[in-house]
């Protein structure tokens, strides 16, 4: 189960075949199981398309399955990996 409960309208990322992330909006949560959702996905040109029954995968990027969703990385984590707080 995902750490943070997922709800309709939340923004998530999907793991693409090139190892890239694409933005998506949760449109449906399957039976209260926040591991499986339907998504409205946005490609790199801004086109929107739907995908159903997308599994959750929070493993490290290199280990994620293609076509899964994960929570967006926090800017602080990307800028200051391993730190709980950014420098003041």
Spatial sequence of strands, sheet with the most strands: 4-3-2-1-5
Number of domain units: 1
* Largest sheet, strands/sense/barrel: 5 strands, antiparallel
Using the CA coordinates, give the radius of gyration: 14 Å
Q: Give the % helix.
A: under 10%
Pattern of helices and strands: EEEEEH
Distance between the termini: 34 Å
Q: Care to count the β-strands?
A: 5
Structural overview:
The mean pLDDT is 81. The chain is globular and about 30 Å long. It has one domain (11-73). Strands 4-3-2-1-5 form a 5-stranded antiparallel β-sheet, with no helix packed on it. It is mainly beta. It contains 1 helix and 5 strands; from the N terminus they run E-E-E-E-E-H.
């Amino acid at each position: 189960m995902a750490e943070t409960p997922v709800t309709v309208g939340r923004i998530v990322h999907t793991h693409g075949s090139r190892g890239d992330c694409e933005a998506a909006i949760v449109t449906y949560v399957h039976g209260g199981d926040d591991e499986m959702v339907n998504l409205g996905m946005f490609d790199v040109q801004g086109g929107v398309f739907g995908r159903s029954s997308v599994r959750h995968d929070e493993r490290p990027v290199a280990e994620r399955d293609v076509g899964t969703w994960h929570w967006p990385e926090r800017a602080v984590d990307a800028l200051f990996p391993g730190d709980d707080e950014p420098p003041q």
